[in-house]
Amino acid sequence: MEPAGAYGAGKAGSLAFDPVAFFTHPRTILRLLSWVFSIVVFSCIVNEGYINIGSERLLCIFNNNADACNFGVTIGVACFLGSICFMILDVYFPTISSVRDRRRAVLLDLVFSGLASFLWFVGFCFLANQWQATSQDELPLAQGSDAARATIAFCFFSILTWAVLTLSALRRFLTGSNTNLFTWQHLEPAPCNARATPYPIANGATIVTTNPYQAPPFTETLDPQKLTQQRPMAPAF
Q1: Membrane-crossing residues (predicted)?
Q2: 152 CB contacts (<8 Å, ≥6 apart)?
Q3: Which residues of 130-155 are buried (b: 16+ CB within 10 A; e: fewer)?
Q4: Judging by beta carbons within 10 Å of its beta carbon (0-12, 13-18, 19+), is residue 43 exposed, middle or buried?
Q5: Which of 93, 216, 112 is CA-nearest to residue 168?
C-alpha cells in the first residue's frame, strides 16, 4: 500500500493556484529561460542561417553543412515545445491525486531534461566546430556571422538551464515523499502569534510553553504530605 504523502499526493488540490508563487518559482524561471533560449537558436538559423552565393540554392552558414542548421532548428523547436508542455504540467501537477501518475510525470521530466541537456551539448560542440571550419570566403561581408555566434552562445546557455532542470527533476524523483518538492507551493511558515500549549502535570498544575514542539516535562510537583508519609522513621531503642 502506497503512503498517503508519497510524491505529494496527500496535498493534491488542497491549495488554489497562485500565479505569483508559480512564476517566481526557480523551476518555472528556468523553464522560461530555456523557452527563450530555444526561440533564439532556431530563429537565428531560420532567419539568417542560410545564404545564397551566385545561385538560387541556399547554403548553411556553418561550413555549408546543412546537417548543422537542421540539427539546430530541430533541437530548438523540440525544446521550445517541451518547455511549454512541462510548464503546463507544472500548473496541473498539484491537482494530480494519483501517486503513480505523479511519479510518471516527474520521471518524464527527468528523462526529457537529461536528453535535452545532452543534445544541447552535442549541438554546441557541433555548431562551434563547423563555425570554426568556415572560411571567410564562404561568407561575403560576414553575412550571418552575428546570427551564428548568437546561436552558439545560446546553445551553451541552454546546456546550463537544462542541466539544472535535470538535477531538479532527479532530486524530486529521489525524494518523492516530500510533498513540497513535487509542487510549486511553498510550505506555509508557522504563525508568529502561535497559541501557547499547556502541559498538565500532577496536582492540577500546568506548565505553559510557547513552543508547540516542546516535549512535555517529565517532572511532577511533589506533595509535602506524601513526603512526610514516605519519610522513614528512626527505630526506637
Answers
A1: 32-51, 71-93, 105-131, 151-170
A2: 124, 127, 128, 131
A3: bbeebeeebbeeeebeebbebbbbbb
A4: middle
A5: 112
Query: Do residues 194 and 210 make contact, with C-beta atoms less than 8 angstroms apart?
Result: yes
Per residue in 114-128, pLDDT tens?
999 999 999 999 999
Paired sense of beta strands 206-209 and 59-60, if any: unpaired
Which domains are assigned to the chain?
19-180 (1.20.140)
CB 196 within 8 A of CB 79: no
Q: Report d(CA 147, CA 52) in Å as an integer.
A: 16
111 is written with which cell numbers? 528523462
135-188 pLDDT, tens digit each:
877 676 567 888 999 999 999 999 999 999 999 999 999 887 454 444 544 434
Give the count of beta carbons closer than 10 Å to the beta carbon of residue 19: 8
